[in-house]
Amino acid sequence: MPHDSLFTPVTIGSLQLSNRIVMAPLTRCRADAAHVPTDIMAEYYSQRASAGLIVAEATMVIEGNSAFGGREPGIYSAAQVAAWKKVTDAVHAKGGKFILQIWHGGRACHSLLNNGAQPVAPSPLRITNDETHTPQGKKPYEIPRELRDDELPGIVAGFRLATQNAKAAGFDGVEIHGANGYLLDEFLRDGSNQRSGPYGGPIANRARLLLEVVDACVAAWEPGRVGVRISPLNSYNDMKDSDPVALTSYVAAQLNLRKVAFLHIMRGDFFGLQKGDVVSAARAAFKGAIIGNMGYAPAEAAQAVTDGTLAAVAFGHHYVSNPDLVARVRAGVAFVEPNGNTFYSPGPKGYTDYPPMSGA
User: Which domains does the chain have, with CATH numbers?
Assistant: First the structure.
């Protein structure tokens, strides 16, 4: 069988996975206007339940922080918890393991999506290399308001409650979103965090908020149910850091002390602007399970598992168009390429209508 190592079981934290193939978190904007998950989301995720682990899309921990056109899900209300329970039940009915990525959009939010509320960030620096989708069409990102130190415990509390709510909704764990230029990543990297005081300056200070969130989530559930995703090199959302390898080493070492379930690391940069070997730095400092992501073909993924670098590998955009991705890897069949025009559009088109391979 091709890529045998990807089909061996593995224990990641408190989770026992049947294979090493992970569905990466993929924002799809199919929640309703109140950020409540919809029935079609249950169909979509259950179609992909053969993954060893599904990481659900970025989900708001605090109301009023929408960054994706107003249709991303939340996990802060009773209605959202009840709706997510339908989704987790559908995945579990097919034998899947399912965790929720919990998230704060930070400066990637926009006032037009949030009843006029100004976005917040570690420093008043706006995203300059793109525009965002709003009800009035694409608009430039806004200058965010710099969060005060005394506001940060409220952010931490939001993540703690989100973890409790994810548990109540039937998820198997949570992944803290510390990647891709959203709030926790904005604090981590010095290109976006130019504040002074206990949350700015040296790496230990910039990582403080993320680690406070980790500690709160671990206390709300258990270390083996909490993972963290970081993207030290990715320049998406106008991000950069002066020493991404050192940042990776510090964060990985701190997460190792906390014995979290896994470290999910995005190894590259969508735009190829920043380079470095962050996977080796993470592997040296973190003794638990590492999930690798970004551009892994099945053969490379299998080799990384075989040599012990990674416990599992996350596949992203190909999971949009290949609900049976595990079966395709097992059979050595090529992936179907997704239609980018339907990534964030409403309804089933480009969402639940990708067929499995013939004979599957």
Answer: 59-92+104-310 (3.20.20.70)
